[in-house]
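Entry 12.
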Amino acid sequence: MAGAHSVRVAVAQMTSINDLAANFATCSRLVKEAASAGAKLLCFPENFSYVGDKDADNIKIAEPLDGPIMQGYCSLARESSMWLSLGGFQEKGSDDARLCNTHVLLDDAGNIRSTYRKIHLSYKESSFTKAGKDIVEIDSPVGRLDPTVCYDLRFPELYQQLRFQHEAQVLLVPSAFSKVTSQVHWEILLRARAIETQCYVIAAAQAGKHNDKTESYGDSLIIDPWGTVVGRLPGENWLIIPNISQ
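Predicted 3D structure (tokens):
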């Protein structure tokens, strides 16, 4: 993405809980901050809208993309005139037992421009989530975006396909990595994906304790095509806004 100018992007880090309204309020505040800073794209982490205390809670609140939860986020994009990456939305599946973990990309008019349903599922997640089949890409003011979600990061062939068959420029990896695995794998894998593909990697992450059983590592990162970390977030409910070359 070498070029004569750069574009400002924002990455949100948050601690989602089992309260849709509270999470929306946090996201709304972060959208306003990013818009005020001139960002063209704001990336949220996996499960931005909700983290249930148990798997059944996530299935219970799952909605279709035209439901009121996602439409609220469409309004945020429209009101802020900013693209939003909403990675890891609990989309209602074809049956009542499973949902889709869906990465939704909204344009600055609040339209759903792309949906990617997470392909690679962890052992635990596969018990209540239906795996996706298709990879997608969308051109944006930041470049060609290629959405993935969390556990996809462990499968380099997916990112090779995105780069060399779909001409990816920016790889999106919203996540909710656990503390144990993140401490040794998170940054290494993200930098490897950037170096292998010569793409920017934007990884918005959940951080902190969601409930008594679940805690996420955080450490949201923006990595350039050389594998250099150009933005990092260590805390909770923060926002990082660097420029990336276009």
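Annotation: The mean pLDDT is 93. DSSP finds five helices and 15 strands in the chain.
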